From TrEMBL:
Matches recorded under PANTHER family: OS02G0805600 PROTEIN, QUINONE OXIDOREDUCTASE PIG3-RELATED
Domain of life: Bacteria
GO MF assignments: NADPH binding; oxidoreductase activity, acting on NAD(P)H
Protein name in UniProt: Putative PIG3 family NAD(P)H quinone oxidoreductase
Species the sequence originates in: Rhodovulum marinum
Alphabetical UniProt keywords: NADP, Oxidoreductase
Source taxonomy: Bacteria, Pseudomonadati, Pseudomonadota, Alphaproteobacteria, Rhodobacterales
Length: 329
């Protein structure tokens, strides 16, 4: 197959609002050892893309400066030392960056097959949230069947994934969200109790149930001491973002007296090997559940690649429920 020398890409011209995103032309990247080149059909949009655009989340030095952490399409070239994947395969993949483009390079070990029954559009929306939720709630947070699990931002891309995965693995799921409509969406996905945080105190709700065994939080700020109160003895808090800021005063006596664990992680800076391990776990334990129709990406809206700015504006309005996707081809 003859590949073009250049491709369309959306770049961040300077730190700022959605209008700093501009369609441009870039060289088609070449796959190195262990890597594949994917011709993208769709690319998922994630909040970290908007943070990168705003100048608040710099890409690692080794990654593309182009935004885009996930996508789905066809493998069109493979580098040396790649096995188990071939030109012509349809895949969805976690990307080190560069997903807002016609072509992208990523480690072969970070690609997974498009699950049976899913379109490329749906598959493009799986990697970033499934890698993040699986590695934080299950591998790091140790969530098991029967536990009380609270996820904040229940209607977000991360939240809609976390609710479904926790429910399908037998946890009792509680979710917070900012409107009755978003709460209804959380309940429909498997939350036994959706809490409108503008009207109700999630601490009271969880304390009334005996406390949360695990909390997955993206809000931070004043939620940190509230989360500590909402945890059951021996409970775990896994922090994956700080929408309300990372600095807060916290009385750690509670952590000691009630034997709590506070931890967290970000996906992007982790090693290729760590991400490959998450991919393998997902392939074995989660992909069959998607193929069986028990877990699905929740789709909000689609924008053409050239309208990435409108996609970012929708995400930052927080009007969406689930995933926003860019149509690339
Ligand atoms: N650690 C990692 O590796 C990792 C990976 C991916 C994503 N993330 C983080 O996870 C979060 C969700 O990502 P996403 O792509 O799923 O984004 P998203 O769909 O835009 O979700 C963000 C959600 O947070 C809620 N929210 C926004 N500001 C809030 C505030 N001040 N207080 C309470 N809730 C607020 C909004 O829902 P309401 O309308 O209900 O408030 C919104 O739906 C982001 O912060 C992202 O940076 C972390």
């Amino acid at each position: 197959m003859t590949l073009p020398a250049t491709m369309r890409a959306v770049e961040i011209t300077e730190a700022g609002g959605p209008d700093v995103l501009r369609t441009t032309e870039r060289p088609v990247p070449q796959p190195g050892a262990g890597e594949i080149l994917i011709r993208l059909a769709y690319a998922g949009v994630n909040r970290p893309d908007a943070l990168q655009r705003a100048g608040l989340y710099a890409p690692p030095s080794w990654a593309s400066d182009l935004p885009g952490l996930e996508g789905a399409g066809e493998v069109v070239a493979i580098g040396p030392d790649v096995s188990g994947i071939a030109v012509g395969d349809q895949v969805c993949a976690l990307l080190p960056g560069g997903g807002y483009a016609d072509y992208v390079v990523t480690p072969a070990a970070h690609a997974l097959p498009v699950p049976e029954g899913l379109s490329l559009k749906e598959a493009a929306c799986l990697p970033e949230t499934f890698f993040t939720v699986w590695s934080n709630a299950f591998m790091r947070g140790g969530l098991v069947s029967g536990e009380r699990f609270l996820v904040h931002g229940g209607s977000s891309g991360i939240g809609t994934t976390a609710i479904q995965l926790a429910a399908v693995f037998g946890a009792r799921v509680f979710a917070t969200a900012g409107s009755p409509e978003k709460c209804a969406a959380c309940a429909a996905l498997g939350a036994e109790r959706a809490i409108n945080y503008r009207e109700e105190d999630f601490v009271e709700v969880l304390r009334g149930e005996g406390g949360a065994n695990l909390i997955l939080d993206m809000v931070g700020g004043d939620y940190l001491p509230k989360n500590v109160k909402a945890l059951a003895d021996e409970g775990r808090l896994v922090q994956i973002a700080f929408l309300k800021g990372p600095k807060v005063e916290l009385n750690f006596a509670q952590v000691m007296m009630r034997r709590l664990t506070i931890t967290g992680s970000t996906l992007r800076p982790q090693s290729d090997l760590a991400k490959a391990r998450i991919a393998e776990d997902l392939r074995q334990k989660v992909w069959p559940l998607i193929a069986a129709g028990r877990v699905r990406p929740v789709m909000d809206s689609e924008f053409p690649l050239e309208d990435a700015a409108a996609a970012h504006a929708r995400m930052e309005s927080s009007a969406h429920v689930g995933k926003i996707v860019l149509k690339v081809a």
